[in-house]
Design a protein that fits this description.
The chain is an alpha+beta fold. The chain has one domain. It is 24% helix and 26% strand. It contains three helices and five strands. The strands form two sheets. It has a three-stranded antiparallel sheet with strand order 2-1-5. A two-stranded antiparallel sheet has the order 3-4. The radius of gyration is 21 Å and the shape is flat. The protein starts with a strand and ends with a helix.
Length: 110
């Protein structure tokens, strides 16, 4: 999935809001171990799933042992003073959600 990008200059120029962009997108497991309590490795509990595939690849959402790295490249315009923001998903505020729900409740069609 491409990262979300917002450019102040682009927004002021043509009204573009958040858009997907970037190149060379990669999301993969890195070598930084992730522990349950961040002090010691996860404990092996009797009956705990010890399947190496699941432990190392998060195949079933359990036993995650390593962090992941999300990386991408983005070409900034040369010699342009701009403010650019990046996000994993398009930001959606709690306030915006409440406004949208209120509009739906007040719409007679719903």
């Amino acid at each position: 999935m491409k990262p979300c990008i917002w450019s102040k200059n682009r927004n002021e120029k043509d009204g573009t809001g958040w858009y997907r962009g970037g190149e060379n997108i990669s999301y993969k497991q890195n070598e930084i171990a992730r522990y349950e309590n961040e002090v010691m490795p996860p404990k092996q509990v009797k009956g705990f799933n010890t399947n190496a595939f699941l432990l190392n690849n998060n195949g079933a959402g359990e036993g995650v042992d390593f962090y992941y790295t999300f990386s991408f490249t983005y070409d900034f315009e040369a010699h342009v003073d701009d403010e650019v923001w990046f996000a994993h998903a398009i930001p959606y505020t709690y306030t915006k959600m409440q406004e949208t729900l209120s509009e739906i409740r007040n719409n007679e069609k719903h």
